[in-house]
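User: My instructor asked us to take a sequence, write out its structure as tokens, and then describe one feature of it. I'm not sure where to start. Here is the sequence I was given:
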Amino acid sequence: MKTVSLFSGCGGMDLGFQQAGFNIVFANDFDKYAAQSYRHNFGEHMVEGDLSQIHEFEIPKHQVLIGGFPCQPFSMMGQKQGFLDNVRGTLFFEVARIIEHHQPEVIVLENVRNLRTHDNGNTLKVIIETLENLNYEVHTQVLNSLDYGVPQKRNRIFIVCFRKDITVQLKESFQFPAGTQFNTDKINIRSILEQNVDPKYYLSHKILPTILSHGSGGYYSKSEIDLPIARPLTATMAKMHRANQDNYVTDPNPLAKEAGKTDIRRLTPRECARLQGFPDDYEIVVSDSQAYKQFGNAVTVNVAQAIAESILTVLPNAMKRETANV
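Assistant: Let's start with the prediction itself. The structure tokens for your sequence are:
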């Protein structure tokens, strides 16, 4: 099935859908470094730039639209100028105008879990109402990456929509993929660590007390390292937060010792990629700072693939055959 990806980042959602058999024919991101990573690993169908400057006619025909998008407060004070009025001026409007024009059979959107309560629940309410008015049946659920084979706690909301004329053809009602437990003795942070890591990732004796502090002033949060399951990766990992925000591991290394460093280090970009389900043949072609940002913002590949496969299980055979023939 021809699939369009918006706010693609470095391609976590795309890779999951691609692995399930979907054909990504167009991708877009505003960030030039994310576009660079995407283009290097997926191909020239990445169009870098502001989506608001891309006309819907410039986007190829497609059956599936996927993507994450930044959330913003939406107005509930529309002047009855059309059902898109309440989202005009927001980034979701750019998604909605493309949906309105192309009317894809399936839509999959992703966002942070707090979208449910953002602007007192108004944001998600307007999103759902807009999609329903665009003639879609809407399903939402928060999924945790930990339930899909990666040792990272990461809750994200997914919005899966089927065009209403398609819903009557579905084999059964769509269900979000059920998570599966795995043996954390075998799959954990230790299992994704690289060997012989460059000393630059190790903490200095000077910064270590700051990283391990439990907070300051009236704020207290216990700092823990060597966790078996990672905290959610963030887009600002390059800044090195306290250990109660980021993931640090004890990993003695003679080279680090020779460089005057401690035995404690932060995760490498490759390890962050692994925690997001990216295979090792996904090439990192940007700086560490940009790589941390991209993997911190990415959709976990395993979760995206599980959702894509769940969609395929309910689609009519004719649509599935089209997917198989891509």
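For the description part of your assignment, you could build on this observation: Residues 196 and 253 are 7 Å apart (CA to CA). Try explaining in your own words what that tells you about the chain.
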